[in-house]
Amino acid sequence: MSESKPESKPEPGEKPKSLRRPPSGDNRRGAIAGLVIAIVILGIGWWLARDLTSASKMQDCLMSGRTNCNVIEPAR
Questions:
Q1: Which sequence ranges are marked TM in the entry (predicted)?
Q2: Cα–Cα nearest to 17, from 8, 25, 26
C-alpha cells in the first residue's frame, strides 16, 4: 500500500519543483506600451508649456498697454 505524497513538499535533498513558467514576450509588450505612453505625455507637456509661455508673453505685452504685440519673425 503505497500512498502518494503531496507535490508541495519535496523530500530532503530534492530540489523543489518550480511552478512558474519562463517569462514570455508579454512583459516587453507592457514595458513598450508604458514607454510610448510616457513619450506621448512628455510631448503633450512640452507643447502645452510652449503654448502657455507664448500666451503669457502676449498677455504681458497687452497688459503693458502696447498695441503692436504680434510676433514678427525675421526674414530669412
A1: 30-49
A2: 8
